[in-house]
Amino acid sequence: MRNWLYFLLLTFTIASCGQNNVIVDNSLKKFFDDNHVQGTFGLFNNGNGKFTIYNLNRFKDSAYLPASTFKIINSLIALESGKITDEKMVIKWDGIQRNVAEWNRDLSMEQAFKASAVPYYQEVARRIGKDTMQFWLDTLGYGSRYQKPKIGKVDTFWLDNSVKVTADEQLGLVKKLYFDQLPFQKRSMRIMRDVMVMEKNSNYTLAYKTGWGFRENGNSLGWIVGWVVENQHPYFFSLNLEGPQNMQMAETRINILKGILKQLGFLAGTM
Fold first, then answer.
1. What is the domain partition of the chain in residue ranges?
2. Residues 209, 43, 59, 130: is their CA dihedral positive or negative?
3. Residue 236 belongs to what H/E stretch?
4. Contact status, residue 41 vs residue 239, Cβ threshold 8 Å
């Protein structure tokens, strides 16, 4: 049983980039060039099994720190273990002033997730504990595409380059989360899916988690991973980008994501 769980994510990632189901779309390069960054993007059409990918090698073969996209896994483990009871559970502010004003107050899990509050999730990780966290990383096969992930400090390992994931693995994770195919209770996965919804209207639902960290070379490394639903049909995406340390990551990554999605026909109610 455990071996099956260990390969749960890897099975998807190995199968995901077969030549017959991949469309390499180099027209998407302009979104990275216009923002003076490099990166990769992949979108999976669940209806026909087709991938649209820019920069295939980086998408499937290059691994990077997950940064705050790890809040998806952190939340699921915390919900599963009871360290977080539900999305309304509040953790008190520790009183330390930080440079993100939204973090300087008591936060519920939902508020902390949407504000990408690092201190909240560091406290969650400490409550989970190193052994339990390592068990779940091993069970999921998370970050083990090239080497088995080994937690250093339990409250920083997703930020300090000690655990790395590929864009392909990230897409596999959110797809399995959407379809209740991860080894967590359905309640935990339902809560996570609901919390990830950032935009919802009559045309589409857009759900995702962002991430922002720094590579060993000092470059900024950004993520957005999630899904867009139009006409009750889900499409899963993974965006990875890299640029100068002082770049405007928050606005750049969302501009690239929405620019690509609009070019591909999304966000207009026409899919």
1. 2-263
2. positive
3. strand 233-243
4. yes
CB 2 within 8 A of CB 139: yes
Does pLDDT of 23 surpass 90?
Answer: yes
pLDDT tens profile 124-178: 999 999 999 999 999 999 987 666 667 889 999 999 999 999 999 999 999 999 9
Closest CA to 13 of 182, 164, 171, 184: 171
Residue 202 annotated as catalytic: no
* Span 65-118, pLDDT tens digits: 999 999 999 999 999 999 999 999 999 999 999 999 999 999 999 999 999 999
| pLDDT higher than threshold 50 for residue 1 | no
Q: Where are the alpha helices (DSSP H) in the chain?
A: 2-6, 8-15, 29-34, 56-61, 71-81, 109-114, 118-128, 130-140, 167-178, 186-196, 249-263
Q: Are 51 and 22 in contact (CB under 8 A)?
A: yes
Looking at residue 90, its pLDDT comes to: 98
- Long-range CB pairs of 112-115 (<8 Å, 24+ gap) are 113/71, 113/75, 113/87, 113/195, 113/196, 113/209, 114/195, 114/198
Candidate list 16, 68, 188, 238, residue with the active-site label? 68
| C-alpha–C-alpha distance, residues 90 and 200, integer Å | 25
HEC readout, 180-209: CCCCCCHHHHHHHHHHHEEEECCCCEEEEE
Write down the architecture of domain 2-263 according to CATH.
Answer: 3-Layer(aba) Sandwich (3.40)
Global pTM value: 0.92
Torsion 148-150-156-159 (CA) sign: negative
- Cα 17 to Cα 27: distance, rounded to the nearest angstrom: 19
